Amino acid sequence: MATTFCPPLQAASRGRGGALAAFHRVFNLKTISIVFYLSALLLLGRYILALYYEAPEAVLFDLFRSIRQGLVTGVMLLVGMAGLEAFNAVRPLSRKAALTLGVLVSVVMTACSIPVRLMVVGTALSRISQEPSYFLSLFVLWSSLGGLAYWLFRSAQEDQIAREELADAECCRETLHAQMVEARLSALQAQIEPHFLFNTLANVKRLYETAPDRGREMLSGLISYLRAALPSMRESGSTLARELDLARSFLTILKMRMGERLDFSIRAEESLGSASVPPMVLPTLVENAIKHGLSPLPEGGRIDITARSEGGDLLIEVRDNGAGFSSVGGSGVGLANTRSRLAALYGARAGLSLSAAPPRGVLASVRMPLAYREAA
């Protein structure tokens, strides 16, 4: 069984590569475009009103110059926040520390952007002292926008990380559950195999005591049967055609001992040969019908096996005209484990049922979802 390892998500985002990825999450063409449109939106209302009082050419020129200045501040804010995210990827910060540093970075980068804005448009820095109220309002606006934007970004990142961790934990849970089911099926199948084989060998032993020549013939047939059956017993899946062949071989071997006391037939839709079925389910039902249905009767009886598709499911039936439910004996390990295997593999969509088969006998029915096994 393969071992599953689910690494923490944070481990993959640390180091130099993680820092670069964190930087690009904040500073990229998409965020730069957002800053551009935000700058245009902040200025558009004021310059639309100015069109009523000034020439359109002068208004548009002033608008584009102001957008360029806003873009300078916005890009510098993005660079500062991207640098903070890269630092956080290398040395993770608490949520409170990250938000505090985000506000501080917004304040510092906004303050540094004001002289850069003036230099970009060729204006003297002395204008700051000449219009302090304008630049103060500009500083408050952009630093507030930067702090708010970083808070929203961190909230979105934490929400995404929480969703990824939840999905990762769910993936690990499903993988562990699948491994548990696989281990349980292996344990159940390990119980069925000796149960099936020991009963078969007991039949060979009884035949040796009554008719040694036929016992040797039956043992030879049993060896051929086991040579074909044993390699498939440990496989996780089988096909209907293979299981029908095993049931036919098993019944043929038993007919050597029982003679006229046993007759059987096998009918199945040809298209269902590659249908996927759990190994040893059908032989277990046949062995149960022989042991509890036909063997107690001096005259023996008949077993009929049919397989057909019905409503998107595969239906396998084993009918005998033996002693029926009046025959009591055995521990029922084979049938109980078969039910458990079907429940573990298919849940409520599969099941094993036993019912009376008039005028006498038992009908064992197995229903499971119809699926086809790919050819090796």
Could you explain how this protein is built, in words?
- Helix content is 67%, strand content 11%.
- With 376 residues, it is of the alpha+beta class.
- The protein folds into two domains: 9-173, no CATH class; 211-369, Histidine kinase-like ATPase, C-terminal domain (Heat Shock Protein 90, 2-Layer Sandwich), CATH 3.30.565.10.
- The longest helix is centred in the middle third of the chain and has 79 residues, at 132-210.
Outline of this structure?
Helix content is 67%, strand content 11%. It is α+β, with helices and mostly antiparallel strands and 376 residues long. Helix 7 runs antiparallel to helix 11.
Percentage of residues in helical conformation: 55-70%
The H/E string reads HHHHHHHHEHEEHEEHEE
Instruction: Specify the biggest β-sheet.
Output: 5 strands, mixed
Would you identify the regions where 5 or more consecutive residues have pLDDT less than 50? 1-5, 7-13
Class based on secondary structure composition and strand pairing? alpha+beta
Number of domains: 2
Draw up the topology in text:
Elements: H1 9-12, H2 15-26, H3 29-50, H4 56-90, H5 95-120, H6 127-130, H7 132-210, H8 212-233, E1 238-239, H9 240-258, E2 262-268, E3 276-277, H10 281-294, E4 301-310, E5 313-320, H11 333-346, E6 351-356, E7 362-369
Parallel strand pairs: 2-4
Antiparallel strand pairs: 1-3, 4-5, 5-7, 6-7
Helix pairs in contact: 2-4, 3-4, 4-5, 5-7, 7-8, 7-11, 8-9, 9-10
